[in-house]
Specification:
The structure is a single chain. By secondary structure, the protein is α/β, with parallel strands linked by helices. Helices cover 34% and strands 23% of the residues. The chain has a 7-stranded mixed sheet, covered by helices on one side. A hairpin with a 2-residue loop joins strand 2 and strand 3. It is globular. The relative contact order is 0.14.
């Protein structure tokens, strides 16, 4: 009887493991997962075995929970992390991600400012030997897993230029005095959000525009200097702040779907009525993490 019970338990364990593996096998199409991390940003884009994480939200627990759900449990590699800016609500969760996963590439721009969260991330990057690179407008990022054929290609639209020395603050080789000087100089450049990385992804004839915390200044510049396409999916800038997603900008890109990463009953009033009205005027279908939880879109 004991042998039969043990055998049945073993069979059940194997079957359960097989179901888990099959359920987490990568699909044939890319997908975008906007993780519900509260008032913050964390976007996972998956294509086959290739995984890209854009920001990590404010909470280690929430971003790790999202990754555990959508990244196969047997895959502990993230091919690329993009940090759009060093605000707490974009950066804080990344320290835990760098600890848990092998990160192949990590890039950001020079939207940096001093914080305990940044100090922690710098230490984690050093321990795990992750080198941080700088990106700016005109750069093309091609991401592909070592043992996979599927690749993702991003175009960097913003910021227009990056001071690479500022990005060196992520290196543990920099002396603390020099780091403080650079962070002080960066802070004087103005609104941190306007140095946020903006990415465009073209996948299966679909345009995805990922705007980080970029606001009306960046949008105005892009409208004046770019031939922006109409987009299928817009990651709404700065959690739906009234200072982003201007009508002029939206009239050009005319998103079919607008996704907003925002915390329930947040103290900022995001997304604002003004932004929601502007999105409605261009016919965008709005999806929000505070109402819909984690949002998954097939690309």
């Amino acid at each position: 009887m004991k042998k039969k019970t043990y055998f049945a338990y073993l069979v059940g364990l194997v079957v359960g493991l097989c179901i888990m593996v099959v359920s987490q096998l990568p699909g044939t199409h890319a997908k975008m997962v906007m993780c519900d991390v509260g008032q913050g940003d964390a976007i996972l884009i998956i294509k086959g075995k290739t995984q890209v994480l854009i920001d990590g939200g404010p909470s280690s627990e929430k971003i790790l929970s999202c990754l555990e759900q959508y990244v196969p449990f047997y895959d502990r590699t993230i091919e690329l992390i993009v940090l759009t800016n060093t605000d707490f609500d974009h950066m804080n969760g990344l320290s835990a991600v760098v600890d848990r996963y092998q990160v192949i590439h990590f890039v950001t721009a020079d939207g940096v400012h001093s914080s305990a969260g940044l100090d922690k991330l710098i230490k984690k990057l050093a321990i795990n030997k992750v080198i941080v690179g700088a990106v700016e407008r005109g750069d093309r990022i091609v991401v592909q897993a070592k043992q996979g054929l599927d690749k993702l290609e991003f175009s960097v639209l913003w910021p227009p230029d990056t001071i690479e020395q500022y990005v060196l603050v992520f290196s543990d080789q920099m002396q603390s005095v020099e780091r403080e000087q650079i962070l002080g100089a960066s802070a004087k450049r103005g609104d941190l959000n306007e140095r946020s990385v903006v990415l465009q992804l073209l996948e299966d004839n679909k345009y995805v525009l990922l705007t980080g915390d970029a606001g009306d200044q960046a949008e105005k510049w892009l409208v004046a200097h770019d031939s922006l396409p109409m987009v299928d999916i817009l990651k709404v800038g700065h959690h739906g702040s009234k200072y982003a997603s201007t009508q002029e900008f939206l009239e050009i890109i005319r998103p079919e779907i607008a996704v907003i990463s925002v915390g329930e009953k947040n103290t900022y009033g995001h997304p604002t009525t003004e932004t929601l009205d502007r999105l409605s005027k261009v016919g965008a279908t709005v999806k929000r993490t505070d109402q819909d939880g984690t949002i998954v879109l097939e690309l």
